[in-house]
UniProtKB/TrEMBL annotation:
Keyword field: Membrane, Transmembrane, Transmembrane helix
Any single Pfam family the record assigns to this protein: DUF4320
InterPro entries: DUF4320 (IPR025469)
TM region(s), chain numbering: 12-37
Lineage: Bacteria, Bacillati, Bacillota, Clostridia, Lachnospirales
Descriptive protein name: DUF4320 family protein
Organism from which the protein derives: Vallitalea longa
Origin superkingdom: Bacteria
Length: 134
């Protein structure tokens, strides 16, 4: 009992608790930070493909090529939803609004406790810069 009542070594226990707490926080951060990186990449993905659609004035092969290159660059494979007022065959008249929504599900695996899928959504809005003659 005398050993248990002794205050010697109290600092060691505090240090061990602090180190364990710090390791838990660091390991949680390592698992959560990739979600923020994926969200940033998804925002860039949406902005890049929207800019391609604005410049070309249509959602066609140029945009599809840009989507493929962005998939290779980011490693993401998102669902892409376009919204625009089409003139004809995916052509968008000058100054008409173009909206794109990019959706990706990212999984946070918290060690052996299971996975937590998180749905990330990025939206971008722009206007066509091409005038299409009738």
């Amino acid at each position: 009992m005398k050993i248990l009542k002794s205050k010697k070594g109290e600092g060691y226990i505090d240090v061990i608790v602090i180190i364990l707490s710090a390791m838990l926080v660091i390991s949680l951060a390592v698992k959560v930070f990739p979600v923020f990186i994926a969200k940033n990449q998804l925002n860039t993905f949406a902005d890049e493909i929207l800019r391609e659609a604005e410049i070309s004035g249509q959602i066609g092969s140029n945009v599809n090529n840009r989507v493929i290159s962005m998939k290779k660059l980011t490693g993401l494979n998102p669902q892409i939803i376009w919204s625009a007022k089409y003139k004809s065959r995916k052509k968008i008249q000058l100054n008409e609004e173009i909206n794109v929504t990019v959706i990706q599900t990212v999984d946070i695996g918290l060690f052996n406790f299971g996975s937590i899928p998180i749905k990330l959504t990025s939206k971008a809005k722009g206007r066509s810069e091409v005038y299409w003659k009738e």
